[in-house]
Design brief:
The complex is a heterodimer of chains A (375) and B (116).
Chain A lengths: L10 E2 L9 H12 L4 E5 L8 E7 L2 E7 L5 E5 L14 E3 L4 E2 L6 E2 L5 E3 L20 E5 L2 E5 L7 H13 L3 H4 L7 E10 L3 H9 L4 H4 L1 H6 L17 E2 L28 E7 L3 E6 L2 E11 L2 E10 L1 H5 L5 H21 L13 E2 L6 H12 L4
Antiparallel strand pairs in A: 1-18, 2-11, 3-4, 3-6, 4-5, 7-8, 8-9, 10-11, 12-17, 13-14, 14-15, 15-16, 16-17
Helix pairs in contact in A: 4-8
Chain B lengths: L1 E5 L8 E4 L5 E5 L5 E5 L13 E3 L2 E3 L6 E3 L5 E3 L8 E7 L2 E5 L18
Antiparallel strand pairs in B: 1-10, 2-3, 3-4, 4-9, 5-6, 6-7, 7-8, 9-10
Classes of the chains: A alpha+beta (375), B mainly beta (116).
């Protein structure tokens, strides 16, 4: 596209190269995913002392685990000796220490170097100085959030305030008691699309009437094309005949006791940049985490969270899981449909956003600002 | 006989490395026994005082060799040769150590400048 001016109804998207270019992706890894708070794991995935997960954040492999006292710790998955990867499994449980498989440098669950061949002959080696490199950790909403930045941005400002801005206040999400919900289902999606296409898709509902017949049946106002994320504090209301947030509108599970009457029969959606989407409905919470792996490849891990009693009693949650699982597949199919065209010569200048999508422009401005050299 | 430290300074479940030549590890077991062995694993140079004390046995932190603290014998490989045990006495609340007279079993490479 040339630089002809657009009619007022339309604003430009990012140019196509932002969705395909290795150098831009590398910059995003460096400036976005390795700098901001990144939601890495469900707290309950780390059952107790010694249980660990390895997660890829930006270009780094990170070990998340619990120490002796049960506190979450995170470390770069890099031996301080010669750089060998300490943990090669995605998850597991170690008994007492992380040990490098190369020269047996051994670290305790707080990352301190506790043993190495000939270490006693090197009394000048400070065992904490040569411990594993630590990563900042926060636990919130029942998830473990990590930040690789040397000076992490304020979690309150960067993460909690985003939620408060969307819902109007922080109490609104606390009503759902995410800390204490249980994972009823987890589905991992392998999406052949750039992570930004997924964010953009999640932010707008212009597509809802076209690709989400089941969702618009439950949330009729979505046919207007205005996403729940367009208005502060707005939750999309269930249709009159709809009894629950399920594939067929049948009743859901027990309502989460803390939610307010205003939150009943409504659907809220929150995007926490750069990689978290949350959906709140009266009886469950759908929590998405994205892991960008390549310019055209993103893994999305999605948890369906219910009251512990629902999960423990083995109630069938499949009707509610199926609704958003279908929405996810419809969305990710759409993203994968866009990805190949991102490198088309006719998309070099990008596409356009209609008025109900204009708020995505703010996301694009944010991406550009993160990548710019202006500090 | 060497005076080590007050017994009160070595909690149950803890170990202490004495920088003698060769080094000695003193363990205070959960059952309240105080036992001493050579600190250096006979497989590769590692401090057994940094290892994992379980009952009357210590596991080397590097390759999981296990030694019986009472006899010095190897309970689990890869170590093959025993460590020496040293006599411990407690007098007036202090730990005293009498070093064994036999030759220690040093791992390969210790006391000798050698590589693979």
């Amino acid at each position: 596209m040339s630089t002809t001016s657009l009619p007022e109804s339309l604003i430009s998207t990012l140019p196509g190269i932002y969705y395909t270019d290795e150098a831009i992706f590398a910059l995003e890894q460096e400036r976005i995913f390795e700098q901001l708070w990144f939601c890495a794991a469900r707290s309950s995935d780390l059952a107790g002392p010694g249980s660990f997960k390895t997660v890829q954040i930006g270009r780094e492999s990170i070990i998340v685990s619990r120490n002796r006292t049960g506190a979450v710790r995170a470390f770069y998955n890099v031996c301080r000796h010669r750089g060998a990867k300490l943990c090669t499994e995605d998850s597991g449980e170690i008994k007492r220490a992380f040990q490098c498989a190369y020269h047996a440098w051994t670290y305790d669950l707080d990352g301190a170097l506790i043993a190495a061949p000939n270490l006693t002959k090197m009394p000048d080696v400070d065992r904490s100085e040569f411990g594993l490199m630590r990563v900042a950790v926060r636990e919130w909403l029942g998830y473990v959030w990590l930040c690789l930045a040397d000076e992490p941005p304020s979690f309150e400002q960067a993460v909690m305030q985003t939620v408060a801005d969307r819902l109007g206040d922080l109490e609104s999400i606390e009503h759902y008691d995410l800390d204490n919900l249980s994972v009823g289902r987890r589905i991992v999606y392998d999406v052949k699309a750039n992570w930004k296409l997924i964010v953009e898709n999640f932010m707008e509902c212009y597509h809802c009437a076209t690709i989400h017949p089941e969702l618009t049946e439950v949330l009729p106002e979505f046919t207007d094309g205005y996403a729940a994320q367009y208005f502060v504090g707005h939750g999309a209301e269930f249709g009159q005949q709809i009894e629950g947030f399920t594939i067929d509108g049948s009743p859901g599970m027990d309502r989460i006791p803390g939610i307010s009457d205003e939150q009943d029969r409504r659907y809220y959606a929150i995007t926490i940049k750069p990689q978290v989407f949350i959906n709140l409905v009266p009886d469950h919470v759908i929590f998405h985490r994205m892991y960008p792996v390549a310019p055209d490849h993103t893994i999305v891990e999605c948890d369906w969270l219910y009251l512990p009693a629902v999960v423990e009693s083995g109630q069938d949650v499949s009707l509610s899981v199926e609704l958003f699982d279908r929405v996810n597949r419809q969305d990710f199919d759409a993203c994968e449909r866009c990805q190949p065209a991102m490198s088309s010569r006719v998309y070099a200048g990008g596409g356009v956003l209609v008025p109900s999508e204009h708020h995505i422009g703010a996301f694009h401005d944010w991406v550009r600002a993160q990548l710019s050299d202006v500090t | 006989m060497i005076r080590v430290c007050p017994l009160a300074d070595l909690a149950r479940g803890e170990a202490k490395r004495l920088d003698l030549d060769p080094a000695v590890a003193i363990f205070h077991t959960e059952d309240g026994e105080v036992l001493a062995i050579d600190d250096t694993c006979t497989h590769q140079d590692a401090s057994l005082a940094d290892g994992w004390l379980e009952g009357c046995e210590v596991e080397c932190p590097l390759h999981s060799s296990k030694f019986d603290l009472r006899t010095g014998q190897v309970d689990a490989p890869p170590a093959k040769r025993p460590v020496r045990t040293h006599q411990v006495t407690i007098t007036d609340g202090d730990i005293y150590l009498t070093i064994a007279s036999e030759q220690p079993n040093a791992p390969a490479g210790v006391d000798v400048e050698a590589g693979p």
